[in-house]
Design goal:
About 25% of the residues lie in helices and about 15% in strands. The chain has a seven-stranded antiparallel sheet with strand order 2-1-15-14-13-12-11, sandwiched between helices. It has a three-stranded mixed sheet with strand order 7-6-16, with no helix packed on it. The protein has a two-stranded antiparallel ribbon with strand order 3-8. A hairpin with a 5-residue loop joins strand 13 and strand 14. The protein is of the alpha+beta class. Helix 2 packs antiparallel against helix 11 and helix 3 packs parallel to helix 7. It has one domain: DD-peptidase/beta-lactamase superfamily (Beta-lactamase). The two termini are about 30 Å apart.
Amino acid sequence: MAYRDFDETAFSRRALLRGSAMLGAGAAMSALPFGGAFARDSAVQWKNVRALIDSYVDTGKLANMVAVVGMGQRAPTVIAEGPLTIGQPVMADIDSLYRVYSMTKPITGMAAMMLIDQGKLGLDQPIADFLPKFANMKVQKTYDGSLTDLVPAERQITVRHLMTHTAGLGYGIIQKGPIRDAYAKAGLGAGQVSKLPIPGFGNAATNARGLAEFADRLAELPLVYQPGTHWSYSVGLDLLGRVIELAAGQKFDTFLDNAIFKPAGMTSTFFTVPKNAASRLTTNYGAMGGALLPIDPARTSIYLDTPSMPYGGSGLVSSPRDYDRFLRMLLGYGVIDGKRVMGELAVRVGTSNLLPEGVKTAGTFAQGQGFGAGGRVGIEGDQKGQYGWGGAAGTVAAVDMRRGLRASLFTQYMPSDAYPIHSAFPEAVAKDIMAMAGA
Protein backbone atom coordinates (compact mmCIF):
# COMPACT_ATOMS: atom_id res chain seq x y z
CA MET A 1 0.00 0.00 0.00
CA ALA A 2 1.42 3.40 -0.91
CA TYR A 3 1.73 5.86 1.97
CA ARG A 4 -0.67 8.30 0.37
CA ASP A 5 -3.30 5.63 -0.31
CA PHE A 6 -4.10 4.27 3.15
CA ASP A 7 -7.76 4.28 4.16
CA GLU A 8 -8.13 5.80 7.63
CA THR A 9 -11.80 4.84 7.73
CA ALA A 10 -10.96 1.19 7.11
CA PHE A 11 -8.28 1.35 9.79
CA SER A 12 -10.78 2.82 12.22
CA ARG A 13 -13.18 -0.07 11.67
CA ARG A 14 -10.46 -2.68 11.80
CA ALA A 15 -9.07 -1.37 15.06
CA LEU A 16 -12.49 -1.36 16.72
CA LEU A 17 -12.62 2.38 17.07
CA ARG A 18 -15.58 3.05 19.26
CA GLY A 19 -16.05 6.77 18.74
CA SER A 20 -19.63 6.45 17.49
CA ALA A 21 -20.50 3.03 18.86
CA MET A 22 -19.79 3.53 22.55
CA LEU A 23 -20.65 6.66 23.31
CA GLY A 24 -5.77 15.66 25.75
CA ALA A 25 8.13 23.10 27.30
CA GLY A 26 8.24 22.81 23.83
CA ALA A 27 9.10 24.05 20.53
CA ALA A 28 8.07 23.35 16.95
CA MET A 29 10.23 22.22 14.06
CA SER A 30 10.27 23.77 10.66
CA ALA A 31 9.13 21.40 7.92
CA LEU A 32 11.91 19.69 6.00
CA PRO A 33 11.89 21.06 2.43
CA PHE A 34 13.57 18.05 0.82
CA GLY A 35 13.57 17.45 -2.89
CA GLY A 36 15.34 15.24 -5.41
CA ALA A 37 16.92 11.82 -5.07
CA PHE A 38 19.27 10.69 -2.30
CA ALA A 39 22.93 9.97 -2.85
CA ARG A 40 25.38 8.01 -0.73
CA ASP A 41 25.85 9.83 2.58
CA SER A 42 28.95 10.34 4.70
CA ALA A 43 30.15 12.75 7.34
CA VAL A 44 32.16 14.55 4.65
CA GLN A 45 29.12 15.06 2.44
CA TRP A 46 26.98 16.62 5.17
CA LYS A 47 28.89 19.87 4.76
CA ASN A 48 26.08 22.25 5.67
CA VAL A 49 25.13 20.27 8.78
CA ARG A 50 28.75 20.26 9.90
CA ALA A 51 29.07 23.98 9.20
CA LEU A 52 25.97 24.66 11.27
CA ILE A 53 27.40 22.72 14.20
CA ASP A 54 30.75 24.48 13.86
CA SER A 55 29.05 27.88 13.85
CA TYR A 56 27.51 27.22 17.25
CA VAL A 57 30.03 25.06 19.10
CA ASP A 58 33.33 26.53 17.87
CA THR A 59 32.12 30.03 18.71
CA GLY A 60 30.93 29.07 22.19
CA LYS A 61 27.28 29.80 21.51
CA LEU A 62 26.43 26.25 22.59
CA ALA A 63 28.31 23.64 24.59
CA ASN A 64 27.75 20.74 22.20
CA MET A 65 25.73 19.46 19.27
CA VAL A 66 25.17 15.98 17.88
CA ALA A 67 23.54 15.45 14.48
CA VAL A 68 22.34 12.03 13.36
CA VAL A 69 21.25 11.52 9.74
CA GLY A 70 20.45 8.29 7.98
CA MET A 71 18.83 6.76 4.93
CA GLY A 72 16.32 3.95 5.26
CA GLN A 73 17.56 1.23 7.59
CA ARG A 74 21.25 1.98 7.07
CA ALA A 75 23.55 2.89 9.96
CA PRO A 76 23.46 6.65 10.60
CA THR A 77 26.07 9.28 9.98
CA VAL A 78 26.94 11.02 13.24
CA ILE A 79 28.51 14.47 13.55
CA ALA A 80 29.32 15.46 17.14
CA GLU A 81 31.20 18.35 18.69
CA GLY A 82 31.69 19.84 22.15
CA PRO A 83 31.76 18.61 25.76
CA LEU A 84 28.79 17.39 27.80
CA THR A 85 29.50 20.28 30.17
CA ILE A 86 31.60 23.37 29.44
CA GLY A 87 35.04 23.01 31.01
CA GLN A 88 34.78 19.23 31.39
CA PRO A 89 36.74 16.69 29.30
CA VAL A 90 33.96 14.25 28.33
CA MET A 91 32.80 14.94 24.79
CA ALA A 92 29.27 14.54 23.48
CA ASP A 93 28.56 11.59 21.19
CA ILE A 94 25.72 9.41 19.94
CA ASP A 95 25.29 7.85 23.41
CA SER A 96 25.15 11.11 25.39
CA LEU A 97 21.88 11.87 27.15
CA TYR A 98 19.69 14.84 26.26
CA ARG A 99 16.45 16.23 27.65
CA VAL A 100 14.27 15.85 24.55
CA TYR A 101 11.22 17.59 26.07
CA SER A 102 8.45 17.77 23.43
CA MET A 103 10.14 15.13 21.29
CA THR A 104 8.47 12.90 23.88
CA LYS A 105 5.14 13.69 22.19
CA PRO A 106 5.63 11.56 19.05
CA ILE A 107 6.58 8.59 21.23
CA THR A 108 3.42 9.02 23.30
CA GLY A 109 1.37 9.45 20.14
CA MET A 110 2.74 6.23 18.66
CA ALA A 111 2.07 4.40 21.92
CA ALA A 112 -1.58 5.38 21.57
CA MET A 113 -1.56 4.21 17.94
CA MET A 114 -0.37 0.80 19.11
CA LEU A 115 -3.36 0.49 21.45
CA ILE A 116 -5.69 1.62 18.67
CA ASP A 117 -4.24 -1.07 16.43
CA GLN A 118 -4.88 -3.62 19.20
CA GLY A 119 -8.50 -2.53 19.59
CA LYS A 120 -7.98 -1.32 23.17
CA LEU A 121 -8.46 2.34 22.31
CA GLY A 122 -10.39 4.31 19.71
CA LEU A 123 -9.07 7.17 17.64
CA ASP A 124 -12.42 8.93 17.89
CA GLN A 125 -13.37 7.45 21.24
CA PRO A 126 -14.34 9.97 23.94
CA ILE A 127 -11.76 10.02 26.71
CA ALA A 128 -14.67 10.19 29.16
CA ASP A 129 -14.99 6.43 28.59
CA PHE A 130 -11.80 6.19 30.65
CA LEU A 131 -11.96 9.49 32.54
CA PRO A 132 -15.63 10.24 33.42
CA LYS A 133 -14.74 13.64 34.90
CA PHE A 134 -14.19 14.89 31.33
CA ALA A 135 -17.76 14.07 30.27
CA ASN A 136 -19.22 17.54 30.86
CA MET A 137 -16.50 20.08 30.21
CA LYS A 138 -16.98 23.85 30.15
CA VAL A 139 -15.29 26.23 27.71
CA GLN A 140 -14.19 29.82 28.10
CA LYS A 141 -16.39 32.18 26.11
CA THR A 142 -13.31 34.32 25.52
CA TYR A 143 -9.93 32.70 24.85
CA ASP A 144 -7.70 33.23 27.90
CA GLY A 145 -10.51 35.27 29.43
CA SER A 146 -12.74 34.79 32.46
CA LEU A 147 -12.78 31.51 34.38
CA THR A 148 -16.47 31.95 35.18
CA ASP A 149 -17.92 33.19 31.89
CA LEU A 150 -18.24 29.72 30.38
CA VAL A 151 -20.35 27.67 27.97
CA PRO A 152 -20.82 23.89 27.73
CA ALA A 153 -18.51 21.93 25.45
CA GLU A 154 -20.31 21.20 22.19
CA ARG A 155 -18.70 17.76 21.78
CA GLN A 156 -16.70 15.22 23.72
CA ILE A 157 -12.89 15.28 23.83
CA THR A 158 -11.55 12.31 21.88
CA VAL A 159 -8.22 10.49 21.63
CA ARG A 160 -7.69 12.15 18.24
CA HIS A 161 -8.11 15.54 19.88
CA LEU A 162 -5.49 14.78 22.54
CA MET A 163 -2.82 13.62 20.10
CA THR A 164 -3.37 16.52 17.67
CA HIS A 165 -3.67 19.42 20.17
CA THR A 166 -7.29 20.04 19.24
CA ALA A 167 -8.90 19.05 22.56
CA GLY A 168 -9.24 22.68 23.68
CA LEU A 169 -6.90 22.09 26.62
CA GLY A 170 -4.49 24.80 27.73
CA TYR A 171 -0.75 24.88 28.40
CA GLY A 172 0.99 26.86 31.14
CA ILE A 173 3.73 27.82 28.66
CA ILE A 174 1.18 29.14 26.15
CA GLN A 175 -1.81 30.61 27.99
CA LYS A 176 -2.07 34.10 29.46
CA GLY A 177 -4.15 35.66 32.20
CA PRO A 178 -6.30 33.82 34.74
CA ILE A 179 -6.24 30.41 33.02
CA ARG A 180 -2.45 30.34 33.14
CA ASP A 181 -2.54 31.21 36.84
CA ALA A 182 -5.15 28.50 37.42
CA TYR A 183 -2.93 25.90 35.73
CA ALA A 184 0.00 26.93 37.92
CA LYS A 185 -2.09 26.85 41.10
CA ALA A 186 -3.42 23.40 40.23
CA GLY A 187 0.09 22.06 39.65
CA LEU A 188 -0.50 21.46 35.94
CA GLY A 189 3.01 22.39 34.87
CA ALA A 190 4.42 21.60 31.44
CA GLY A 191 7.19 19.45 32.91
CA GLN A 192 10.43 20.06 34.77
CA VAL A 193 13.50 22.15 34.07
CA SER A 194 15.66 22.57 37.15
CA LYS A 195 15.89 22.24 40.89
CA LEU A 196 16.84 25.91 40.93
CA PRO A 197 14.07 28.52 41.33
CA ILE A 198 14.46 30.10 37.89
CA PRO A 199 11.82 32.73 37.00
CA GLY A 200 9.75 31.76 34.00
CA PHE A 201 10.57 28.06 34.12
CA GLY A 202 7.97 26.94 36.65
CA ASN A 203 8.38 24.93 39.82
CA ALA A 204 8.29 21.18 39.36
CA ALA A 205 8.00 20.68 43.13
CA THR A 206 4.40 21.96 43.08
CA ASN A 207 3.24 19.83 40.15
CA ALA A 208 0.54 17.19 40.47
CA ARG A 209 1.78 13.89 41.85
CA GLY A 210 0.99 11.22 39.30
CA LEU A 211 -1.06 11.06 36.12
CA ALA A 212 -4.31 10.26 37.92
CA GLU A 213 -4.07 13.40 40.05
CA PHE A 214 -3.00 15.42 37.01
CA ALA A 215 -6.08 14.27 35.08
CA ASP A 216 -8.47 14.92 37.97
CA ARG A 217 -7.17 18.46 38.49
CA LEU A 218 -7.21 19.21 34.77
CA ALA A 219 -10.87 18.14 34.48
CA GLU A 220 -11.84 20.84 36.99
CA LEU A 221 -10.60 23.70 34.79
CA PRO A 222 -12.33 25.10 31.69
CA LEU A 223 -11.16 24.47 28.16
CA VAL A 224 -9.74 27.38 26.18
CA TYR A 225 -11.41 26.30 22.90
CA GLN A 226 -14.29 24.10 21.87
CA PRO A 227 -12.95 20.56 21.27
CA GLY A 228 -12.13 19.78 17.66
CA THR A 229 -12.14 23.39 16.44
CA HIS A 230 -8.62 24.83 16.87
CA TRP A 231 -5.00 23.67 16.91
CA SER A 232 -3.70 24.92 20.24
CA TYR A 233 -0.49 23.60 21.84
CA SER A 234 -1.50 21.89 25.04
CA VAL A 235 -1.09 19.28 27.77
CA GLY A 236 -3.04 16.89 25.53
CA LEU A 237 -0.18 14.41 25.23
CA ASP A 238 0.34 14.44 29.02
CA LEU A 239 -3.32 13.61 29.53
CA LEU A 240 -3.04 10.98 26.80
CA GLY A 241 -0.48 9.25 29.00
CA ARG A 242 -3.21 8.70 31.60
CA VAL A 243 -5.62 7.38 28.96
CA ILE A 244 -2.91 5.03 27.68
CA GLU A 245 -2.25 3.51 31.07
CA LEU A 246 -5.96 2.91 31.67
CA ALA A 247 -6.43 1.37 28.23
CA ALA A 248 -3.26 -0.73 28.52
CA GLY A 249 -3.86 -1.82 32.11
CA GLN A 250 -0.36 -0.84 33.19
CA LYS A 251 1.52 2.29 34.19
CA PHE A 252 2.26 4.64 31.31
CA ASP A 253 6.04 4.53 31.74
CA THR A 254 5.94 0.75 32.07
CA PHE A 255 3.92 0.48 28.87
CA LEU A 256 6.41 2.63 26.94
CA ASP A 257 9.26 0.49 28.22
CA ASN A 258 7.58 -2.82 27.39
CA ALA A 259 5.90 -1.83 24.12
CA ILE A 260 8.44 0.52 22.50
CA PHE A 261 11.79 0.98 24.24
CA LYS A 262 12.77 -2.65 24.83
CA PRO A 263 11.47 -4.03 21.51
CA ALA A 264 13.08 -1.19 19.54
CA GLY A 265 16.41 -1.54 21.36
CA MET A 266 16.13 1.89 22.97
CA THR A 267 18.23 1.20 26.05
CA SER A 268 18.98 4.82 26.98
CA THR A 269 15.56 6.48 27.12
CA PHE A 270 14.23 7.32 30.58
CA PHE A 271 11.94 9.52 32.64
CA THR A 272 14.56 9.21 35.40
CA VAL A 273 18.25 8.88 34.50
CA PRO A 274 19.65 5.88 36.42
CA LYS A 275 22.90 6.14 38.34
CA ASN A 276 24.77 3.92 35.90
CA ALA A 277 23.94 6.33 33.04
CA ALA A 278 24.39 9.64 34.88
CA SER A 279 27.92 10.16 33.54
CA ARG A 280 26.47 10.47 30.02
CA LEU A 281 24.02 13.27 30.87
CA THR A 282 24.56 16.70 29.34
CA THR A 283 24.19 20.02 31.15
CA ASN A 284 21.26 22.21 30.13
CA TYR A 285 22.08 25.89 29.71
CA GLY A 286 20.17 29.12 29.67
CA ALA A 287 21.19 31.19 26.64
CA MET A 288 21.05 34.72 28.00
CA GLY A 289 22.63 37.79 26.45
CA GLY A 290 25.10 35.74 24.44
CA ALA A 291 26.28 33.80 27.50
CA LEU A 292 25.52 30.25 28.61
CA LEU A 293 24.45 29.80 32.24
CA PRO A 294 23.94 26.27 33.62
CA ILE A 295 20.28 25.96 34.64
CA ASP A 296 20.32 22.18 35.11
CA PRO A 297 23.88 20.97 35.76
CA ALA A 298 24.43 17.34 34.80
CA ARG A 299 25.82 16.29 38.19
CA THR A 300 22.82 17.61 40.13
CA SER A 301 20.16 17.43 37.43
CA ILE A 302 16.49 17.25 38.28
CA TYR A 303 16.37 14.31 35.86
CA LEU A 304 18.41 12.20 38.29
CA ASP A 305 15.37 12.22 40.61
CA THR A 306 11.98 10.60 40.08
CA PRO A 307 9.62 13.18 38.48
CA SER A 308 6.20 14.02 39.88
CA MET A 309 4.75 12.01 36.98
CA PRO A 310 5.87 10.57 33.63
CA TYR A 311 5.13 13.51 31.34
CA GLY A 312 3.94 12.16 27.99
CA GLY A 313 4.37 15.60 26.50
CA SER A 314 7.84 16.54 27.73
CA GLY A 315 9.37 14.12 30.19
CA LEU A 316 11.92 11.93 28.43
CA VAL A 317 15.69 11.96 28.40
CA SER A 318 17.13 10.04 25.46
CA SER A 319 20.35 9.48 23.52
CA PRO A 320 20.81 10.39 19.86
CA ARG A 321 21.31 6.67 19.17
CA ASP A 322 18.00 5.76 20.82
CA TYR A 323 15.96 8.46 19.14
CA ASP A 324 17.45 7.51 15.79
CA ARG A 325 16.25 3.95 16.44
CA PHE A 326 12.74 5.27 17.09
CA LEU A 327 12.86 7.14 13.78
CA ARG A 328 14.30 4.11 12.00
CA MET A 329 11.48 1.96 13.37
CA LEU A 330 8.98 4.42 11.91
CA LEU A 331 10.76 4.38 8.54
CA GLY A 332 10.53 0.58 8.67
CA TYR A 333 6.76 0.91 9.17
CA GLY A 334 7.05 -0.63 12.60
CA VAL A 335 10.00 -2.96 11.98
CA ILE A 336 13.61 -2.49 13.08
CA ASP A 337 16.41 -5.05 12.80
CA GLY A 338 13.88 -7.59 11.59
CA LYS A 339 11.68 -7.19 14.68
CA ARG A 340 8.17 -5.81 14.49
CA VAL A 341 7.48 -3.20 17.18
CA MET A 342 4.34 -1.56 15.74
CA GLY A 343 1.76 -2.55 13.15
CA GLU A 344 2.41 -1.11 9.70
CA LEU A 345 -0.96 0.56 9.40
CA ALA A 346 -0.60 2.08 12.87
CA VAL A 347 2.58 3.80 11.69
CA ARG A 348 0.98 4.92 8.43
CA VAL A 349 -1.99 6.45 10.23
CA GLY A 350 0.08 7.94 13.05
CA THR A 351 2.36 9.74 10.60
CA SER A 352 -0.59 11.04 8.54
CA ASN A 353 -2.67 14.17 8.99
CA LEU A 354 -5.19 13.42 11.76
CA LEU A 355 -6.52 16.93 12.30
CA PRO A 356 -10.32 17.11 12.65
CA GLU A 357 -12.05 18.39 9.54
CA GLY A 358 -11.88 22.15 9.24
CA VAL A 359 -9.04 22.70 11.74
CA LYS A 360 -6.24 24.88 10.34
CA THR A 361 -2.74 25.48 11.66
CA ALA A 362 -2.18 29.01 10.33
CA GLY A 363 -0.44 31.19 12.88
CA THR A 364 0.61 28.27 15.11
CA PHE A 365 3.76 26.20 15.75
CA ALA A 366 2.45 23.85 13.04
CA GLN A 367 2.05 26.66 10.50
CA GLY A 368 0.83 25.41 7.15
CA GLN A 369 1.13 21.74 8.07
CA GLY A 370 -1.05 18.92 9.30
CA PHE A 371 -0.65 17.06 12.56
CA GLY A 372 -0.50 13.36 13.31
CA ALA A 373 0.12 11.30 16.44
CA GLY A 374 2.03 13.88 18.48
CA GLY A 375 4.01 15.36 15.58
CA ARG A 376 3.71 17.75 12.68
CA VAL A 377 2.95 16.22 9.27
CA GLY A 378 3.77 17.60 5.83
CA ILE A 379 0.67 17.56 3.66
CA GLU A 380 1.69 18.88 0.25
CA GLY A 381 4.57 19.29 -2.16
CA ASP A 382 8.05 18.24 -1.09
CA GLN A 383 6.91 18.26 2.55
CA LYS A 384 4.35 15.51 2.05
CA GLY A 385 5.22 12.40 4.03
CA GLN A 386 7.32 14.16 6.67
CA TYR A 387 6.63 13.67 10.37
CA GLY A 388 8.42 15.01 13.43
CA TRP A 389 8.69 17.57 16.18
CA GLY A 390 11.20 19.51 18.26
CA GLY A 391 12.03 20.00 21.93
CA ALA A 392 12.20 23.00 24.25
CA ALA A 393 15.96 22.64 24.81
CA GLY A 394 16.94 22.83 21.14
CA THR A 395 16.49 19.23 19.97
CA VAL A 396 14.71 18.44 16.70
CA ALA A 397 13.90 15.25 14.78
CA ALA A 398 11.92 14.09 11.76
CA VAL A 399 11.43 11.31 9.26
CA ASP A 400 10.60 11.64 5.58
CA MET A 401 8.45 8.57 4.92
CA ARG A 402 8.37 9.02 1.15
CA ARG A 403 12.12 9.46 0.67
CA GLY A 404 13.39 7.25 3.47
CA LEU A 405 15.32 9.89 5.41
CA ARG A 406 15.67 10.33 9.16
CA ALA A 407 17.39 13.33 10.74
CA SER A 408 17.83 14.55 14.29
CA LEU A 409 19.85 17.16 16.16
CA PHE A 410 20.66 17.30 19.85
CA THR A 411 21.88 20.18 21.98
CA GLN A 412 20.81 21.77 25.28
CA TYR A 413 19.80 25.38 25.74
CA MET A 414 16.73 27.37 26.77
CA PRO A 415 14.69 29.13 25.64
CA SER A 416 14.61 27.31 22.32
CA ASP A 417 13.99 30.50 20.36
CA ALA A 418 17.26 32.03 21.58
CA TYR A 419 18.75 30.49 18.43
CA PRO A 420 16.98 29.42 15.20
CA ILE A 421 18.11 25.78 15.46
CA HIS A 422 14.66 24.32 14.81
CA SER A 423 14.62 25.88 11.34
CA ALA A 424 18.36 26.03 10.62
CA PHE A 425 18.96 22.28 10.99
CA PRO A 426 16.27 21.14 8.54
CA GLU A 427 17.47 23.79 6.10
CA ALA A 428 21.06 22.53 6.38
CA VAL A 429 19.95 18.93 5.85
CA ALA A 430 17.93 19.98 2.80
CA LYS A 431 20.92 21.79 1.26
CA ASP A 432 23.12 18.74 1.75
CA ILE A 433 20.51 16.40 0.29
CA MET A 434 20.18 18.59 -2.79
CA ALA A 435 23.96 18.83 -3.15
CA MET A 436 24.32 15.06 -2.93
CA ALA A 437 21.50 14.51 -5.41
CA GLY A 438 23.19 16.84 -7.88
CA ALA A 439 26.63 15.30 -7.47
